[in-house]
Amino acid sequence: MKKVLVVDDEPTIVDIIEDLLRSSGFDTLPAGSAAEAERIMKRNRPDLILLDVMMPKTNGFEFCKKLKSES
């Protein structure tokens, strides 16, 4: 099953996206921040990342840059 990492600081948005993805046959990995997403990625390698760009502390653009620099 394909894994999708869903990163958003709004829990309601994460819940809605998870429901849609699960009903379409995807496994989801929810994260409420870039730091949490980073911890999740150390244990699970997602096939796709859905990332909110407007988050406190580390925004989505900064997180993307970090991911790209590490790959």
Provide structural commentary.
The chain has a three-stranded parallel β-sheet with strand order 2-1-3, sandwiched between helices. The mean pLDDT is 94. By secondary structure, it is an alpha/beta fold. Helix 1 links the parallel strand 1 and strand 2 (27-31). It is 48% helix and 20% strand. The protein has three helices and three strands, in the order E-H-E-H-E-H. The longest helix has 13 residues, at 11-23.
Strand content: 15-25%
Largest sheet: 3 strands, parallel
Strand order of the largest sheet: 2-1-3
How many H/I helices? Answer: 3
Q: How much helix, percentage-wise, in residues? A: 40-55%
What series of H and E elements makes up the topology?
EHEHEH
Unreliable parts: none
Q: Measured on Cα atoms, how large is the radius of gyration? A: 12 Å
What characteristic shape results from the CA principal axes? Answer: globular
Look at the structure and give the mean pLDDT: 94
Structural class: alpha/beta
Concise structural overview:
By secondary structure, this protein is an alpha/beta fold. The protein has three helices and three strands. Helix content is 48%, strand content 20%.
Layout of helices and strands, plus pairs?
Blueprint: E1 3-7, H1 11-23, E2 27-31, H2 34-43, E3 48-51, H3 60-70
Pick out its properties:
3 strands; 3-stranded parallel sheet; 3 helices; 71 residues; alpha/beta; globular; single chain
